[in-house]
């Protein structure tokens, strides 16, 4: 995931900005967490792909 993508991503729950935490990767973000600045919901980044599914749907999705 490119860090510039943060400019257009928002929390799917309340449409507020997302903050990047615990990011790793050289030129692109390979893993980390996106955290909503308003509600505090966390969205994982795995293999460079942000999982922006709501929490209840994230548990059911296959890996």
Account of the protein in words:
By secondary structure, this protein is mainly beta. It contains one helix and four strands. The chain has one helix spanning 55-58; strands at 18-24, 31-36, 42-46, 49-50. The chain has a four-stranded antiparallel sheet with strand order 1-2-3-4, with no helix packed on it. A hairpin with a 5-residue loop joins strand 2 and strand 3.
User: How many distinct helices?
Assistant: 1
What is the strand content?
Answer: 25-35%
Uncertain residue ranges: none
Quaternary: single chain
Cα distance, first to last residue?
18 Å
H/E topology pattern: EEEEH
The biggest sheet, with number of strands, parallel, antiparallel or mixed sense and barrel status, is: 4 strands, antiparallel
Instruction: State the helicity in percent bands.
Output: under 10%
Order the strands across the largest sheet as they lie in space. 1-2-3-4
Derived structural class: mainly beta
Shape: globular
According to DSSP, the number of beta strands is: 4
Radius of gyration: 11 Å
The overall pLDDT, averaged over residues, is: 90
């Amino acid at each position: 995931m490119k860090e510039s993508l943060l400019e257009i991503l928002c929390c799917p729950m309340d449409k507020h900005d997302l903050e990047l935490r615990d990011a790793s990767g050289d030129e692109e973000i390979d893993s980390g967490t996106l955290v909503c600045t308003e509600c505090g919901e966390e969205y994982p980044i795995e293999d460079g792909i942000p999982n922006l599914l709501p929490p209840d749907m994230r548990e059911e999705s296959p890996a």
